[in-house]
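Standup notes
- DV: blocked on the single-chain target, sequence here:
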Amino acid sequence: MPTPIHDPADQRLGDYVGLTDVALRRRTETERGLYIAESQKVIRRALAAGHRPRSYLMAQRWLPDLADLVEQAEADDIPVFVGEPHVIEALTGFNLHRGALAAMQRPVLPTLAEVLDGARRVLVLEDLVDHTNVGALFRSAAALGMDAVLVTPRCADPLYRRSIRVSMGTVFQVPWTRIEPWPQALAELRALGFTTAALALEEDSVALDELAANPPQRLALVLGTEGDGLSRRTIAAVDVTVRIPLAGGVDSLNVAAAGAVAAWALRVRAG
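- DV (later): unblocked, structure below
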């Protein structure tokens, strides 16, 4: 049976404390080897990907919709905590209106070689700080045929709650890992047969249409952080820089939008 909770200071609920505190969560989630999945759809996608729950937290009214998860949790001896909305909000820092939360065991990241085995199109995210952009890029990667996503050591966590939610759970679908050291690891991509291309407004940048007309067999597309864009070291190390031709006096796009445009243009076409 689900366990009722009444006190947000209950020590059994430590995994869920302060979910809106990014700095706190960045530290505690990695230290404890966990991440938080939010909403019924995201939780089910995480489970389908083979991820293991540590516990569930949900409001009473969602129990009928999640009856199968509760039943399986009981069979697996996984705690299911149920509380009133005001108790959950005091615990987590926000109003839970998507049904449920799950504290999930953080999986061990695969090696670079494992992620790139058979891959032809890869997105590389350099030092993005906005979890919304990270999640949006994973969703685009899944929708537009990217085979993998690589994130640099300082990039925001793809398994942060907001990243997962914005990705609609596709972060569990697209193979990914961290690539380091950076940007030295660009040489490793090149050794694996990848052409490395950076989206950057350089004088010698080629138009996206030009690269798409004769694309390389294996391509790693590097996207830079919000605001400053790619580092000079990265631009100097890639094989080619690419620009998206824009109209209307607009000089650049949001990184998530730019990544989606470039992913669509450079996708592997059938035949």
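- Follow-up: The domain at 112-265 is CATH 3.40.1280.10 (Alpha/beta knot).
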